[in-house]
Amino acid sequence: MHHANHHYGHAHILARYCRIAEPMHPPRIMGYLQHGWNIGDGLAPGTPYVSGSRLLVWSEETRRRSWSQGRRNAVVVGAPFSYLVEMTPDDGTPAEGTIFYPFHGWEGQQVHGDHQRLIDEVRATEIGPITACLYWNEYRMRAVRALYEKAGFRVICHGYRGFWWRDHNRDFLVNQLAELRRHKRVVSNRLCSAIWYGALAGREVAVYGDPMVLDNADMTFGGEPRLHRQWPEVYGRQTDYDACHQLARVQLGADELAGPDELRKLLGWPKEGYV
After folding, report:
1. E-strand stretches of 137-226
2. Confidence check: pLDDT of 190 > 80
3. In terms of Cα–Cα distance, which of 229, 140, 240 is closest to 191?
4. 130, 98 contact by CB (below 8 A)
5. DSSP H stretches of helix in 217-259
6. What residues contact 27, with CB distance under 8 A and at least 6 apart?
7. How much is the pTM?
8. Residue 55: in which H helix or E strand, if any?
9. Residue 53 vs residue 214, higher pLDDT
10. Domain extent listing, the chain
11. 3-state SS class at 30
12. Secondary-structure class of domain 98-251 per CATH
């Protein structure tokens, strides 16, 4: 199993959907599972990939891009978050305020930008209580976290996504879905997985503010300028709810989810037990 298949608790969510008893370690996925929304072929830039391995992508759109890059073994399975939404009915708790996801870095790349300017813009735009959800990378930076706390934001982190089979928060997406549902709006300064997740969860979404700069950003697939060109519907302080929700269903493969038995076959899992 590629270690990225464990990120965000993805393998655990799919095992639960396939009716596999909660294992300490889920079955080995036979292939590479797309671990985050991207505008490329489903693989993160620079990801080691064994030629001919099955690439399990979230959407038909991504499968076509992968095919155009010469990857003939790409299969659409849908995003793990989409399966989680299917398995987790909304309990109807009243939603209020906004959850804000600042663009983030990771172990290999850091983000450069003015967090205070973003904070000022979000405070001037949003109504009601505001939660700032920092990625683990920024959450551990005390100076960054302090800016949001000083501004009166509720500051949270969904947890660590894991790396090389260590320290995974298997409830990362479970926590994220719960937080999305407690807010009316989901906003970010860059189009990202969290925006599509929020739209699929039935929340208003919006992308605005300085998108910031990522160290050594890979522009192979067009980068930030392409995001604006291809998905203008999600940009601006107010967006069309129905249009964004439908786009999220496409990007997350929500209408192409496999049944438990079919998904087992796609992931290379046996009918009984696991390996």
Report:
1. 154-156, 185-188, 204-207, 213-214
2. yes
3. 229
4. yes
5. 223-230, 241-251
6. 11, 15, 20, 267, 269, 270, 274, 275
7. 0.91
8. strand 55-57
9. 53
10. 3-87+253-267, 98-251
11. coil
12. alpha beta
